[in-house]
Amino acid sequence: MAVARAGRMFGLLAVLVPTALVAWHGSLYGSWIVDDAGVTFAYARSIATGAGAVPQPGAGPVEAFTSPVWLAMHVVGRWLGLFDRGTWFGVPDYVAFPKALGLLTAALVFAGFHRAAKAVTSRPAVVTLVAGVLLAAVPSFVVWTLSGLENGLLAAAAVWLVALMLPAVVEGRLLTPRVAVGCGLLAALAALTRADGVVFVAAYPLVALGLMRRGELRGITRAVGISLGAFAVPIAICAVWRLVTFGSVLPSQAVTDMQGLPDVGAAVAWFDLVGYLPWPLVVAAVVVVGVAVVHRSAAALPARRPLGAVLVPFGLAGLAFLLLHPDWMEHLRYATSIWAVGALLIVLCALRVIAIVRARRAVFVGGGVAVAAAVVASAPAMVGSALDFGDYPSAPICVAVEQTGRTVNAYEAVVAASGPTLLGPDLGAAALTSTSRIVDIGGTADPRIADFWEREDRTAFAEYVFATVRPTFIKGSEYTMSDSGLAADPRLERDYAEIASDKDLTDWVRRDALRTPTQLDELTTLAESTLQPAVDDAKNAGSASCGDRLTP
């Protein structure tokens, strides 16, 4: 009894310590929330207040968010008064709540480590602690788990697939209905967390087939059918909701973000992935995993066969990374699941390698020194990467709040246009804070614009913007304006007057929205004297918050 109690205590500490390290590491990034998370926040506000699944009250239903599950969690948070209502002990809840959820998903990842490790070692707390500390040291994992996005939840779903399958393989119960249903539901959670998570539906069938013994084909067929059925039920429910709400059974982000089957160009993404970590660490990891998988020793624990239950989800996480369009943001936004499953894989393989070489003292000592040296040599680069991001984080929501939401609101106060519209980027911040109707220049919340981008039909795009939308204000970068064909269209210069421009964005106002000849000068003076300095301040304080609430 005392031994069991001590084991539970050590297991709890092994989960809590790396969770605390993630929180400490995340403190380097302050109150930073990425602007893309604002899309989920805006939808959560609309749904919770009865406006429907729309980015802004009064807008038409369109699925611009990436994760139904993550959205539902924020809706519940708002209903409970924990999100989009004010502050937590002085911290805005649009920062505190999603970061708390992200930290919870990190704890779930580490709890999954512990459950998986219990099946293959008598010291699961040690495995959990070592793998957890390694993962907490990876900036990419911490940055995106605490970014306000759903990355940590997807990583937790992937790790818990391992935590369910690995013990089942060791104990010979992989084909039981309970395991099959659990794996199907976890795969559905992954798919409903982010569209690329659908690849994890293949984890259970691949592990079952890969570890198949003679005479098990019928049992595998039945178990895989049960797993796919469990996966299909929540997916079908969500598909019906999508069809009723948005008129489509497919998530819009699956169309926008997915690039189809990996091609030669997609292989470059793997080089980005491998090049993200310092090379000594990568070499050490490859050697450890390679030796553990290739060596045939039956005496070394954990055994080689059960490692397939970790290798398959790891490979699928890599496939999901390749299925998405390359991301311009720093720290590999779509790699979170790879780091999570990979950390557990490396530590389990290291246990096996230790058991293999323990009797060979020189190899044991030399290998240990080499791995320790790789970790030490890699530490400065990892620390520098984290500190650099803390100073200059990617796409802070508060910069977009000032640059798009509050700036255009100030323009509107001068122009006093009836039913103003804004064609611009930064849907998240704009939807939360703008009093204009937002038309997303990237097409995230407008299927017609998304279709123009997909077909590269610049003529149709310009016609739609200048003849149909006729936005009151346009805010665009040099890239979006030129690549969309808007900059080359003579109607931009004819119908719109430039207000102000900086190195990132240029603002225009429709000429017929100006009521007096002096209003353009008023807008320009306001932008240069007041609005642009506020934007510059937000950029210089990229990890700071921007008020207690993000409202129009």
In total, the number of strands is 7
Order of helices and strands: HHHEEHHHHHHHHHHHHHHEHEHHEHHEEH
Helical segment tally?
A: 23
Shape call: elongated
Terminal CA distance reads: 58 Å
Strand order of the largest sheet: 4-3-5-7-6
Low confidence ranges: none
Mean pLDDT: 89
Rounded to an integer in angstroms, the radius of gyration calculated over CA atoms is 26 Å
Share of helical residues: 55-70%
- Strand content bin: under 5%
Biggest sheet: strands, sense, closure? 5 strands, mixed
Structural class, please? mainly alpha
Describe the protein.
- With 552 residues, the protein is mainly alpha-helical.
- It contains 23 helices and seven strands.
- It has helices at 2-27, 37-48, 68-79, 93-118, 124-136, 139-145, 151-171, 177-193, 203-210, 217-246, 252-257, 267-276, 279-294, 308-323, 336-357, 361-391, 397-415, 427-433, 447-455, 458-469, 478-483, 490-495, 519-540; strands spanning 87-88, 91-92, 421-424, 437-440, 473-476, 496-501, 506-510.
- The chain has a five-stranded mixed sheet. The chain has a two-stranded antiparallel sheet with strand order 1-2.
- Helix 18 (427-433) links the parallel strand 3 (421-424) and strand 4 (437-440).
- Helix 2 runs parallel beside helix 18 (427-433).
- The longest helix is centred in the last third of the chain and has 31 residues, at 361-391.
